[in-house]
Amino acid sequence: MPEGPSIVILKEEVQQFTGHKVIAVSGTTSIDISRLKDKTIIAFKTWGKHFLICFDTFTVKIHLLMFGTYRINERKETKPRLSLVFEAGELNFYTCSIKILEGDINTHYDWSVDVMNDDWNPKKAQKSLEEMPEKMICDVILDQNVFAGVGNIIKNEVLYRCYVHPESIVEKIPRDDLSQIIAECSTYSFEFLYWKKKFELKQHWEAYTKPLCLRCNLPFVKKQTGDLKRRSFFCTNCQKLYK
User: InterPro entries from the entry (predicted)?
Assistant: First the structure.
């Protein structure tokens, strides 16, 4: 599943179509695609893992799910879920969820929970964590209502950086460590973006899919953790378990 930084890259790649009119639209999506024809794209936005195509009175929300892809100015052999054609190019989406959001996009999203948004508010994240004291930190970090855009790669890397075991209980984690985790969720997301643009993201992974802890030279534990049962890679020697 693409994480927030990958969706930001998509937004940057399609800026050429901002202000352009959709001259043809097709696809297998169940939304009323006729609404898009002859409409002008006002802006492209992102919220976490959501890609947003904003028109004057509505927005098309695209979620790439686990295996979604897109093509700019080219097509795959399979029929797209949604295809938008412009005078100077086209935009095609595959294997994704598509919905229409009516009215002002700002009424649908809280931008302050998006870790890559200019309005990101770490104090709000801190308050949200205080309201779920008994949850494991591995689940909370993946909660899109708290850390929109953070996915499993970022979760693993952040907890490794912060020396915190993924199964630690939120209320047991020292406040300074929680603050560091919150800050790193945003910091690492921007580093993820930088490395991905340079096609070297995997070179910088220190925990995700790795066999050994770089700090302790001991085998990582690989385990499905928390209620979400997402894969975690962690060192039981240097990542402290707070329970």
Answer: FPG_cat, FPG_N, H2TH_FPG, Ribosomal_uS13-like_H2TH
How far apart, in Å, are the Cα atoms of 103 and each of 59, 106, 145? 8, 9, 21
Find, among 43, 48, 47, 45, the residue nearest to 17 by Cα: 43
Distances in Å between the alpha carbon of 204 and those of 8, 139, 163, 181?
19, 23, 17, 18
Give CA–CA dist 135/219, Å, rounded. 26
- Going by C-beta distance under 8 Å and a sequence separation of 6 or more, which residues neighbour residue 136? 166, 167, 168, 169, 170, 225, 226, 227
pLDDT tens-digit map of 106-122 = 999 999 999 999 999 99
**Strand duo 43-47 + 50-54: pairing:** antiparallel
Q: What is the mean pLDDT of the chain?
A: 97
- Domains of the chain in start order, with CATH, are 4-109 (3.20.190.10), 112-234 (1.10.8.50)
Tens digits of residue pLDDT in 207-221: 999 999 999 999 999
- List helix spans (H) across 48-110: none
pTM reported for the whole predicted model: 0.93
Tell me how far apart the alpha carbons of residues 200 and 208 are, in angstroms, rounded to a whole number.
14
